Amino acid sequence: MTRVCTLIMLAWASLGLGAGKTDYFVVLLEGKKVGYAVQERRVEDEQVITSEQVYVSVSRLGVPVRLQMTETAIETIDGRPLATPSWAQRTRTS
């Protein structure tokens, strides 16, 4: 799970400038693809909204588990933070 978090942090650090941008990333765990991430950045009403959705599917003791996480950062044009809502869901597949 540390590698997933590392990938997320690297994705945030690679954020470019511009009015709107979408990037896609692969999520690896021990060298194997376990999911993907979508990062979006847009400017609306003098606010910069950056969000990242991460989808991961792993097997825990033979039981497939899916994780979906969303992290959003809302800030002013000059970088002052306004809000950081986040959401996560875990589902077990049969």
Say how many strands there are: 6
How far apart the termini lie comes to 22 Å
The percent of residues in helical segments reads 10-25%
In DSSP terms (H or I, runs of 4 or more residues), the helix count works out at: 1
Instruction: Tell me the number of structural domains.
Output: 1
List SSEs in N-to-C order.
Answer: HEEEEEE
Uncertain runs are none
Structural class: mainly beta
- Rg is 15 Å
Per DSSP, what share of the residues sits in E-state strands of 2 or more residues? Answer: over 45%
Q: Tell the overall outline.
A: elongated
Indicate the multimeric state. Answer: single chain
Main β sheet profile? 6 strands, antiparallel
Mean pLDDT: 83
Q: Could you describe the 3D structure shown?
A:
- The structure is a single chain.
- The protein is mainly beta.
- The protein has one domain (2-92).
- It has 1 helix and 6 strands; from the N terminus they run αββββββ.
- Strands 1, 2, 3, 4, 5 and 6 form a 6-stranded antiparallel β-sheet that branches.
- β2 and β3 form a beta hairpin.
- The radius of gyration is 15 Å and the shape is elongated.
Write the SSE topology:
Layout: H1 2-13, E1 20-29, E2 32-44, E3 47-60, E4 63-76, E5 81-83, E6 86-92
Antiparallel strand pairs: 1-2, 2-3, 3-4, 4-5, 4-6
List keywords for this structure.
94 residues; mainly beta; 6-stranded antiparallel β-sheet; 1 helix; 6 strands; 13% helix; 65% strand
